[in-house]
Hints:
Blueprint: H1 12-16, H2 19-22, H3 61-76, E1 79-83, E2 105-109
Antiparallel strand pairs: 1-2
Amino acid sequence: PTGTGSFVIPFATLSHENSKNWGEDAKIFVGDRWVGTDKTAASVSAGYWPFGLGRYACPGRFLAVAEIKLVVLNIISRVDIFLQGGKYEVVDPLNTVAVPPKGQLLIKPLEKPLL
């Protein structure tokens, strides 16, 4: 509120992991959650807003998503990626952006890159 000296920061994780928006598996990573829907990776809505919302939505979000896709494609075409022991542990479920999970990600170069 104006004039109160308050600074309000919305907590996106509560919306992104809300079972009312995403069903019972809302807190579980489902890599193909949006496959077959009309939503793009840069879409924003009241339930999902990694790039902000409304007039404050990031104008560069489409470029950012395109760059992320190119980098990921380049990496996975050249290496084999796997978790040591096949598992990891989420340290802080309310702060998955700034606190990395415990686990070792191993990367082994492919003998012949795919691209």
